Amino acid sequence: MGRVMVTKLGLLRRDRDFRRLWGGHTISQVGTQTTAVALPLVAALSLDAGPGGVSVVATATFLPNIVLPLFAGQWLERRRRRGVMIGTDLLRAAAICVVPIAYALDALSLALLAATAFMVGLAGVFFDVAAFAYLPELVDDIDLPAANRAMQGSTTAAQVAGPGVGGILVQLLGPPAALLADAASYLASALGVAAVRRPEAPVAADQARPRLLEGLHQLRVNPFLRALTTHAALCNAAAQILLVNLVVLAVKDRGLSAGGYGLALSAAGAGALVGTMLALRVADRRGYGPAFATFLFLYTGVPLLLPAVPFEGAAFGLALGLIQGVAGVGLGAANVLSVTVRQLLVPRESMARSLGAYRTVIYGVIPVGSALGGLVGAVAGARAGVAVGAVGLAASAVPMFRREIRRLGDPRAVAGLAAEPSEFDLK
Predict the structure, then answer these.
(1) Which of 293, 295, 297, 302 is nearest to 324 (CA)?
(2) Which helix (H) or strand (E) segment is 226 a member of?
């Protein structure tokens, strides 16, 4: 039986190239969270946009995640990833700078904001797919779990701290000027990637052009990847059903203040940060399959308590925060294990198109979940909508509890196999 190995000497301490990549990534993630706060505020405060206008900007940011990953994955298979990462960072920095410049020239409009949001989202898709495929080139397989823990940890920390940083910058500088901090973060990320000295493997000159749907085929033929993709898609849809109704249940039905609601939700981010630190320790002791099952139970099972919480006001907020915090531990750990498993099980030559296909599937269901959440809430009420979403979350974990997956030890032992379940490394 294989075991997950966590190196004794920390990867960040001994690998200068990874440290440079991680440093740029961390700064960039904080900047990205600043944009998530500042762009809608630019629309609302600088352009006096209502909910419809703010929604246009938010939708434009998210839209590339639905329509582009499959094409991005195919395109990146025949290109070196580091150059693409640098280029997309520079593109995001330039796009963000357009907003404060246009504001200074009194030329800012909602259409320009939406176009900027779409461009930032588009570049982000290509950067994320390239980074997923590039990381296994930068570090050895034995260091890949630790590398993903570091990357996911900084991402989670940015999700916790970033909105607060963004809010402070907006208050101090104003929404348009606050975006300059985000542009600087993308430049820092570009410099970090550019400073890496480890050479990237060249793309084979005779490599056949991949077919558009080959990434989906990779996810279908590998039992673990198929189960993981099914779980993630169902989970995202169910989470949207839950969240659409949770805000109504908490703020309108139970009298929780908007600030209290935001604070309760932030507990999920704090829990996720703890989860990223625990993931590899649990996987090292119990194997990937049992660790995944344990953390999925926390993330998808604990929210079943939400519709049963009887309290009002601050007491409801406290209970919500506790549930979100525990579920967040499961989410943070599962994210580390998920990324590592996919990077180890997918053949290197299929890495980019595999992630492109994965993102297409798991993001494509989000609008469906939002629509269903609104429908259920309108027909049966917010509490029923939260219940449906929570049950959907729990049901999403079922594909990951197959016997073959629960008993998976170390995925390195089966790396690259599009295997039948019996060929998996079992405990």
Answers:
(1) 302
(2) helix 223-247
Extract the tokens encoding 282: 């649990």
Q: Are 358 and 222 in contact (CB under 8 A)?
A: no
pLDDT at 19 over 80: yes
CB 388 within 8 A of CB 243: no
Q: Rounded to whole angstroms, how far apart are CA atoms 52 and 47?
A: 12
Burial class (CB in 10 A: 0-12, 13-18, 19+), 11: buried
In this structure, what token pair is assigned to residue 388? 């449906």
The Cα–Cα gap between 42 and 47 comes to 7
The pLDDT tens digits of the residues spanning 48-90 come to 877 567 767 877 877 887 778 877 777 777 778 888 889 999 9
H/E/C letters for each residue in 302-361? Answer: HHHHHHHCCCCHHHHHHHHHHHHHHHHHHHHHHHHHHHHHHHHHCCHHHHHHHHHHHHHH
What residues are paired with 426 via a beta bridge?
408
User: Do 46 and 57 meet the contact criterion of CB atoms below 8 Å apart?
Assistant: no
> What DSSP string describes 138-158?
HS-GGGHHHHHHHHHHHHHHH
Query: What integer pLDDT is reported at residue 420 of this predicted model?
Result: 39
For helices 288-296 and 313-345, angle between their N-to-C axes, nearest 10 degrees: 160
The Cα 130–Cα 377 span in angstroms is 38
Q: Side chain identity at 389, as an amino acid letter?
A: G
Query: What structural domains and CATH numbers belong to the chain?
Result: 11-194 (1.20.1250.20), 214-423 (1.20.1250.20)
Helix/strand/coil for 126 = helix
Residue 333 CB partners (closer than 8 Å, separation 6+): 275, 276, 278, 279, 282, 291, 295
Contact 365/373 with Cβ under 8 angstroms?
no
